[in-house]
Amino acid sequence: MTRTFALNENVSIPAVGFGTYLISSEDAPEVIQTAIECGYRHIDTASGYRNETAVGEGIQAGLASTGLSRSDIFVTAKLWPGNSAWGDAPKTHEQTLAECDASLERLGLDYVDLYLIHAPYGGAERLSQWRALVELQTAGKARSIGVSNFNRGHLDEIRTAGLPTPDANQIELHPWSQKPELLAYMAENGIAPIAYCSLVPLSTWRTEEGQASAKTEQMKADSAAFSDMARKYGVTEAQFLLRWGVQNGYAVLPKSLNPQRMKQNIDLEGFEIDDTDMAAIREMDRGQGVAWATGDPSSAD
C-alpha cells in the first residue's frame, strides 16, 4: 500500500507504518532492515521503547540495501514526558529540547518526520513540552509535530493557550476501542489520527511473557470474532483489521518479526470492506483502550 494521509501542508504520512514497540535491541537492526526491504516507508519508534539506537542502525541498513535515500523514509519518534504518578518528574521545556536531540543522536538522524509527546503525563509541564515541540519544528528537527494518547481535554488545553494545533494524535484504535467522539473533535480541528495496536482483537496479540496489557478474559475469548469477515475477503484477520483502520482514514502501525507477515500486513490494496461489514463493526465498540496495563493513558488528568 502506497497511500498517504496529510499531516500538514508539507508532510504526508504513509498509511501503513512499521511499529517497533517490544522489539529488542538485538533483533531491531535486522528486523527494521527487513521491513524496509518489504516495502515499509514509515518506521515508528520512541525513546520509551529503549531501542532507538538499534532502530537507527536498522534504518541505515535498510537504506543501504535498497538504495533509498533518507527522504524516502518517514520516521516517527516520541518524547517520554515523565509521569509524576510513577515517580518520574515531567520533562521541562529545556529537557524536552534535549530529549529530542538525544533521540536524533541515537537514531543517527538529523531530523524526524514526526515528533510526538508520548502521553499526556506532563501535568503542569504539558504546555511547556508542547511549546518545545513547536520550537523543534521551527528549527527543522521535526517536519511535523503531534501528541499521543491525548483526549479532548488535553487537546483543548493547547487550543486555549493559543498554541499551534498538533498535526496528529496517535491513539489506540481498533474495533473494540473506536473513540468516535474524540475522532470527530480531531476531524473538526484538523488533527490526523494515527492508530496503534490495531491488532488487539487477534488471539495472537501480546501473548508472550512480559507483554502485559489490560485485555480482558472476555476479549480473549472473543478473539475469533473477525475470522469469518476476513475469510469472506480471502485475507488474514490482521489484513482485515488493518484495512478497517485505513478505510477509516487512520495510518496504522503493524509489527511482526516474520517477513511473510510483514509483507501481508502492508498488502492491503486488493480488497475493500463493504458498507455492511463496516456498519457491523461500528456496533462492536467496547470503550477505552487496553494496550497499557495501567489503563488507557488518555484518561490522565
Describe the secondary-structure layout.
Layout: E1 4-6, E2 12-14, E3 18-19, H1 28-37, E4 42-44, H2 52-66, E5 74-79, H3 93-107, E6 114-117, H4 126-138, E7 145-148, H5 152-160, E8 168-172, H6 180-188, E9 192-196, H7 217-221, H8 227-233, H9 237-247, E10 251-252, H10 259-266, H11 275-282
Helix pairs in contact: 1-2, 2-3, 3-4, 8-9
Task: Characterise this structure.
By secondary structure, the chain is α/β, with parallel strands linked by helices. It contains 11 helices and 10 strands. It has helices spanning 28-37, 52-66, 93-107, 126-138, 152-160, 180-188, 217-221, 227-233, 237-247, 259-266, 275-282, and strands at residues 4-6, 12-14, 18-19, 42-44, 74-79, 114-117, 145-148, 168-172, 192-196, 251-252. The strands form 2 sheets. Strands 3-4-5-6-7-8-9-10 form an 8-stranded parallel sheet, covered by helices on one side. A two-stranded antiparallel ribbon has the order 1-2. Helix 2 (52-66) links the parallel strand 4 and strand 5.
